[in-house]
Every structure is written in C-alpha cells, then in structure tokens.
Amino acid sequence: MSNKLSKSQIEDKKKEIVSKIKEGRLCTTKERPTSAKGEFWSNLLRIKDMNGIYEPFVQCVICQQILSYEVKNGTNSLNLHVQSCTKKTSLPKSTMPIDNYVKKDISIPPDDKRMITVACSKYCAFDMRSFNSVNGEGFKQLCQALIDLSYKYGLAKLSKPSVEVLLPDRTNISRTIKQIANEYRLKMNDILREDLKEVKLIGISTDYWKNSYTRTKSGENTIRIIKSVLRSYDLDPDDKHIIYLTDNASNFVSGLKNEVASEQLSSDQEPTLHLVLPWINKLKSCCEIKNNELPTIKYFKKMILEQIKEKVWLTRLHDIATFLHPVTKNLLSYSQKERNDVYKATRDMMKTINIIEPDEKQKQISATAITSTSRKTPKK
C-alpha cells in the first residue's frame, strides 16, 4: 500500500471493504492483473469500485477472507494462503480436526452481545414482531443454523457458540427498542425543524386503540395525548395552526345503522365534512326524552346520547367546513357568540394559507356573516 499502515489499520480497512461489498459500493471480479501468471489466481478475486478502480485487496474464494495485495509487494503471501486453504479443504473425511474431540465453552464479549441485542430489537420493531418471538424455538433454530454455517466455513475453528448465550431477554429487547426509538426521534426532530420553517398549516390524522387499563377515549384525553406527542418532537401545538382529523364521528354514526345519515356521511363522490355537525345535532335531538315515553325507551335514548357525547370528537375544522358550505353556512343551531368564534377561526385559517392578507381584518368574513344571518324582508 502507498502509505505503510499498522496491522490494526489494515484490519479496519478490510472490515470496511467487506461492508462496502455488502452494500454494493464495491464489487469482485475474476480478472487477473496483466502480469499475473500463477495458478493460485484462480482462487482469488480482485476488488474494484464502480469506476473500475481496483482496491489494494483481494478476496479468497475458498475462505472468503480479504487479503492485502499490491504489485510492488509481490504475491508470495497470496500463493501461500491459497495453498493453505486448499490443503484444509482437501483433508480426508476420516481425518477429524482436534476441536471435534474437545468441547470448550467460549465467552461472548459484552460489545458483541450488545450488537445481537440491537439486531433483535430492530427485528421486533421493524417487522412488528413480539418481544417474546426471540425466545421461540423456531427462531433459535434459525440462529443456530446460521452460526453452524458460519462455523463450518469460518477460519477460527473454536468451540461452536450456542445461540442461548447470544439472544437477549425480551425485557432487554423492550428497553433497547425504547432507546433506538429515542435515537430515531432525535433524527426526526432535526428533519421536522427544517421542514417546519416553510410550513404554515399542519394536518394530523389520528387513530389509536384503547386497552382496558387506560382511560376512556374521550376528546379531552385524545387531544392531551396528541399534544404530548407533538411536544416530544419539539412542536408547540399552540404556536402552529394545526388541524386534527379523526374517524370517530363517521365510525360512530355508521354504527347507529341510520341509513340516511350513514349514506350521506360515507359518500365518496362529494364532500361530507360539512354534514357531520348537522347530523350529530340531529341525532342528539332524536335522543331527547319525552314525558309520555316508556321507561325502556327513555333509558335507551339516554344511553345513546351518552355514547354520542363520549365517542364523537368534533373539532374546529368541522365548524369551519359547516360555515363555508353554501347549504349549511347559516349555522342556525349556533348562538351568536359561537358564530363569532367560527368566523374568527375561519379568518385565522385564511390568513395562515394566505387567502386573505392579515391587515384586511374582518371585511371578507363579516360580509359573509351578515349575508348568512340577515333574513330581513326588504322594504317595498
């Protein structure tokens, strides 16, 4: 090599070569040097990059080991290596290596065990496997087969390591996945910070499952969880204009088996967001209890109304969609204060996406509001 490297530097360089070959950044070829004449070259592969420039290394096809090679240093060491590998593979089957008669437990260094733990954690996280899957008999047999194969073709013929000493406990897997997730979250934070410099409006689509040990899936709890997640990514939910979308309303209305409501809210040919509030209000009005009704009907209506209040999560986006649609823009079920809040929210959104200038204040929305609420008959 052009600059004299230490033994450790050469070994590091060999590991780098192996890694680049696996990644496809380097490739091997049977093409010999122009001056090569020895037969041992038939057992060696040269290594080059995508530009055709050769690395000062070759790979033995018998043992797969990476060997240093430069023309000026000669090929005697390469010849001796190939001869040694050829003798090992040509041993009679009746000749048993000495390690077959000696059973010796080997000690796995902590760094190597940690590498296996990280690999198992990624296996569980990336492939959506349970933490306990690494303790499965089939998984252990797979790992043991890989170890046996590497031992069969490896050069270090020591005692075969057992898969039991390598695989971590599921608790260790769970803890490691959290550590890896935090590392990825930090990387994601950096990406989000750059992207959010140009972002004015953020939309978040949410859905999750409630298990029996957590609190109810109410709108208040949901928004608290979402804000907590946003803050974990260094996003201030009060600083950005964020729109939250949820499928709870449509799912619940479909569950009521009301054909008219479910058909309108499930339409895929036209917008339906503006219909959510009117239909929810209509469903609530249908649940109003009347004095002359049977106790069973009263109880049934009460239970349905409680389910509507608990399951349906309405957001400001529903108000804005209802106001902006020509059919529902009057907001007849709203008080004047509620209407004003909707007008303000609409103005804020329009400013955010640059539909109106911030200094135009309330001109556009106020004009629409007056048109929507005024129903006076003109004087003749």
From TrEMBL:
InterPro entries linked: Hermes_transposase_DNA-db (IPR018473), RNaseH-like_sf (IPR012337)
Under the heading Gene3D superfamilies, the entry gives: Zinc finger, BED domain-containing
SMART domains the record matches = ZnF_BED
Q: Name one Pfam family in it.
A: DBD_Tnp_Hermes
For the Hermes trasposase DNA-binding domain, which residue ranges apply?
Answer: 111-171
Domain of life here? Eukaryota
- This protein is called Hermes trasposase DNA-binding domain-containing protein
In its UniProt entry, the species of origin is given as Rotaria sordida
Upper classification of the organism: Eukaryota, Metazoa, Spiralia, Gnathifera, Rotifera
